[in-house]
Amino acid sequence: MKKYLPLLLLLFMASCQEKPVEKAVRLPYYDTADFTPKWEMPAGQPFHQIRPFSLINQKNQVFTEKDLAGKICVADFFFTFCPGICPRMTSSMGDLQKAFIDDDNILLLSHSVMPDADSAGVLQRYAQEKKVNFKRWKLLTGDKKEIYDLGRKYYFVEEDEGIKKGPEVFLHTENFVLIDKQRHLRGIYNGLDPNSIQDLIRDIKILEKEPVLAVGQQVASH
């Protein structure tokens, strides 16, 4: 037995050593159209977030920022009769719906950039055609100026680095934007790129695990 004592002692010492604590992986915050990452929330001033709004979903129900409370959201901007990029974007949203179909923390938002044509009834028929799960994925219409203002000034969905455009300039982009439970911007992704969608799925799971960051508290980068 004595000849095994040194080995047992080494094993005991190894087991008693404190294991290094891994830093929690976090996503950066964004508050500008060029999506420069921010690793801390500024103290003493409000941080950029999606403003209050009022739109209509595919079931002709009023949908506001209050419906985002406690939800991690992915937003895009499309129109139902688009022959170009929109079908592929809708397919990517469908992949996200499938990945998080049983996860009530997640909400998908598709805003119509042609709301005069995309009434609630049109959106509902489109939803049925594309097998949209109403609980997980909202198709939104409403006032065009409000939708374009949200897309350009708050979601920064066009990444135009501050170039001002009015509602008369068509909004058309393949970008998906990730929003946390406080309506802060946390990522932008190419809705046409399967690899980017996989990155988005990964980042959604990261957001689900991270604690809420207090104002002025630094984010640990990874």
Automatic annotation (TrEMBL):
Pfam families: SCO1-SenC. Gene3D superfamilies: Glutaredoxin. It comes from the Bacteria. InterPro entries: SCO1/SenC, Thioredoxin-like_sf, Thioredoxin_domain. Keywords: Copper. Residues 41-209 form the Thioredoxin domain. The keyword Ribosomal protein does not apply. Coiled coil: none annotated. Belongs to the SCO1/2 family. This is Protein SCO1/2. It comes from Hymenobacter artigasi.
